[in-house]
Amino acid sequence: MQSVATLLTLAALLLATPAVGQTIDPYASDPVDLIALREETQTYSSGIDIWEVWICQVPNGTVPLTAAGVAATVEGGVRPYFESISGGNYASSFRTGGVVTASSPSSWPDNPFIYQTECEDLAAAAANPGASGVIVVVNVDYSGGYATGGFPCLPGFLCPETFPANGRIAVVGAATVAVIGGFPPALRTIAHEIGHTVFWPHSYGGLLDFENGVVYEYDNPMDVMSGGDHETLDIGTIAINRYAAGWIGPDNVIFHRGGTLTYQIGSSSGVQILVLPTEVTGIYETVGVRFASGYDSGLPAEGVEVYRVDQSAAVCDFVIAGQCSGPDRRISQVPALEDPAATAHVYPEGATFVVRGVTITVGTRFGNAFNLLVSGAAVAERFIDENGNPHESNIEFIAEHGITRGCNPPVVDRFCPAGIVTRAEMAAFLLSAIGQSPATSYQGTFSDVPAGLWYTPYVEALAALGYTTGLGDGTYAPNQAVSRAEMAAFLARVFALAPASSSGFSDVAAGEWYASAVDSIRAAGITTGCTPSTYCPHDAVLREQMATFLARALG
Question: Which pTM value belongs to this model?
Answer without folding.
Answer: 0.83
